[in-house]
Amino acid sequence: MNGLYRPRHGRVIAGVCAGLAQRFGMAPWTVRLLALLSCLLPGPQFVVYLVLWVMMPSEDRYVARAH
Predict the structure, then answer these.
(1) What are phi and psi for residue 30, nearest 5 degrees?
(2) Is 50 helix (H, G, I), strand (E, B) or coil?
(3) Sign of CA dihedral 10, 42, 48, 23
(4) With contact defined as beta carbons under 8 Å apart, do 6 and 19 qualify?
(5) Whether 16 contacts 53, CB under 8 Å
(6) DSSP 3-state helix, strand, coil percentages of the chain (rounded to 5)?
(7) 10-29 pLDDT tens trace
(8) Which of 61, 62, 59 is CA-nearest to residue 7?
């Protein structure tokens, strides 16, 4: 599966970082660290995380839609 979704396994809070890592071929801890470090910069990073949480489908819904 090559789409953008929140996986069932490997979630810490909502699975957003794990989903982004899986989609772009990175380790989840790397994406989590980058997200955490980006919060030190001014900008709407937390809002973007919340929007992705709402907009990214869970793995169950993604798989159901793919079939």
Answers:
(1) -65, -45
(2) helix
(3) negative
(4) yes
(5) yes
(6) 60, 5, 40
(7) 889 899 999 999 999 999 99
(8) 59
